[in-house]
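Tip: read the tokens left to right.
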């Protein structure tokens, strides 16, 4: 699949409307329209297009490259780091990699501009979610920018710390991927905290990257909200002290933190949704890492109309054509949408598609374990509690195998299914225990309530309302 095809396939319906097919003529227009209408996961048949338009392979590649540059201008007319930000937002990391190198090459004769370029790319990279498998080159290139920045900038005594925290970042990523072993991760996070104490008043890029890394560690790995809030405050102070460098990413960084905080606590969902909508410019779009947190919040607030608009504005037009390590997240969000609209058939179809494409070198085991929590819901709603219980037990064992510890939802659902025709009081007690210690607005709580309502009558929470 060419870069041109990959770029077009990643665009949403709204973003595709910005493309201008009429700017191309002859063979270019015919090839471009063929790509726009393609629905084959492998992309267009390049050989047939080459023969039909009497082209050579090098000429075909040249035309594709020229059309890709034109598409970049259609979507992000200003180019530069704004283009890089858009490519990162759309998870187009092959494009991001080549564009990084192209922009770097253009600045090699301008050391001062090059140093600022390295800094800006490092800053924006903190707001992207790069799947480690299959993107090793991109991650290596991005982490290498810290070393290049240190070499070209004015010397500072703390420069070696910027290189060291980059290494720690890669070690944490490896530990999370291999098996979620906190005994390996915690010492690395403690080292980051120690470096932060030593460099708290150092130069802005080091302080920001270090604060951002610690925010993510305490939000996603250690789950210490107080420390996450502290390091977020430090990151904001760094951005406020040097607005010229951080202005382009400030709002996105803040929104990302607020979304992750909101998705892990009890809040007024409707009020939060409205406040975020006022701050975000829809035209710029969301990075997947933000959309992944915000889309369930929209659903939980009950605004299904807004959720449908977000699908049109920000989801790829044809998810089937997007790279699998990115598509799995969109399939899961679509599954959530259909669960809330009551379309269980489509919801199950989306889940199966996500599981089917999550294979090969880019397979995400952690995503698979989390997604399989929803699997027993579908046989349960079809009236097969025995199968639902069997799936719960099987997926609990699988989760433990890969290092997941908390499987409260599956354990509770297994209890509900086990006691449907036996001691129903035990099933009710298991449900009440789960509700007493879990946020009732999450997707898992929503579907567990539907199962409880089906087998045990009206759920206690529903009855109170």
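Filled-in amino acids:
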């Amino acid at each position: 699949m060419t870069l041109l095809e990959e770029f077009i396939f990643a665009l949403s319906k709204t973003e595709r409307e910005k493309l201008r097919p009429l700017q191309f003529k002859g063979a270019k227009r015919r090839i471009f329209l063929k790509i726009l209408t393609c629905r084959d996961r492998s992309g267009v048949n390049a050989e047939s297009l080459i023969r039909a338009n009497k082209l050579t392979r090098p000429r075909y590649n040249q035309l594709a490259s020229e059309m890709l540059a034109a598409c970049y201008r259609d979507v992000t007319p200003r180019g530069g780091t704004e283009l890089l930000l858009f490519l990162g937002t759309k998870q187009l990391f092959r494009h991001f990699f080549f564009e990084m190198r192209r922009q770097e090459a253009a600045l090699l004769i301008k050391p001062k501009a090059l140093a600022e370029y390295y800094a800006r790319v490092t800053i924006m990279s903190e707001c992207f979610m790069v799947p480690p498998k299959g993107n090793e080159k991109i991650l290596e290139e991005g982490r290498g920018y810290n070393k290049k920045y240190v070499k070209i900038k004015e010397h500072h005594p703390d420069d070696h710390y910027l290189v060291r925290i980059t290494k720690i970042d890669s070690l944490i990523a490896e530990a999370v991927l291999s098996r979620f072993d906190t005994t390996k991760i915690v010492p690395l996070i403690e080292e980051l905290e120690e470096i932060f104490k030593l460099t708290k008043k150092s130069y802005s890029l080091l302080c920001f990257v270090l604060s951002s890394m610690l925010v993510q560690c305490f939000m996603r790995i250690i789950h210490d909200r107080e420390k996450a809030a502290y390091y977020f405050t430090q990151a904001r102070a760094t951005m406020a002290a040097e607005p010229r460098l951080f202005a382009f990413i400030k709002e996105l960084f803040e929104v990302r933190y607020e979304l992750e905080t909101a998705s892990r606590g009890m809040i007024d969902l409707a009020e939060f949704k409205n406040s975020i909508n006022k701050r975000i410019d829809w035209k710029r779009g969301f990075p997947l890492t933000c959309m992944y947190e915000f889309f369930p919040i929209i659903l939980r607030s009950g605004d299904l109309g807004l959720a449908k608009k977000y699908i049109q504005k920000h989801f790829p037009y044809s998810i089937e054509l997007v790279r699998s390590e990115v598509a799995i997240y969109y399939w899961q969000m679509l599954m959530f949408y259909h669960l809330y609209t009551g379309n269980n058939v489509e919801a199950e179809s989306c889940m199966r598609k996500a599981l089917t494409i999550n294979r090969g070198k880019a397979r995400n085991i952690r995503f698979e374990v989390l997604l399989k929590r929803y699997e027993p819901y579908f046989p349960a709603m079809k009236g097969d509690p025995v199968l639902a219980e069997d799936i719960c037990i099987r997926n609990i064992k699988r989760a433990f195998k890969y290092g997941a510890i908390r499987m409260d939802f599956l354990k509770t659902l297994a209890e509900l299914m086990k006691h449907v025709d036996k001691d129903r009081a035990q099933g009710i007690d298991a449900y009440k225990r789960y509700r007493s210690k879990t946020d009732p607005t999450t997707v898992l709580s929503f579907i567990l309530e539907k199962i409880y309502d089906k087998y045990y009558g009206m759920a206690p929470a529903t009855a109170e309302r």
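The chain has a mean pLDDT of 85. The first helix runs from residue 3 to 10.
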